[in-house]
User: Fold this.
Amino acid sequence: MSKSVTNLQKTCLLWQQRLRLMDWKVKIRLVKFSELGEAVARIEPDLDSKTAVMLLLCAEDFEAEIDPDFPMTYEGLIVHELLHLHFYPLTMETKEPVLAEEQAIECITDALLFGYKK
Ligand SMILES: [Zn+2]
Assistant:
């Protein structure tokens, strides 16, 4: 998969359809590691306007962050961040990331992308 924003945006739209998130307008931005802090991706939703900015690690920093034991793909990151939109109304009041939410999203992403191969 090409890592251009245009292609990532297409992948995002495909998964928005599959996850029934077409009421959201999601804009992808590729950013440096320093802009993301500790994470490799982040989504910043605005529930009122149903818009979100999805920050993904740019390609050159992405390669450096890959852990061979936990390989990740842009598609995986996009699905993960999109799932946050479903959970957002439940956890938006909390300032810190909710561990149970992250674990649920990891499990669902894994099942959606890789479950059929096992
Ligand atoms: Zn997450």
Observations:
- The helical segments are 5-18, 33-36, 59-65, 74-91, 99-114.
- The chain has five helices and three strands.
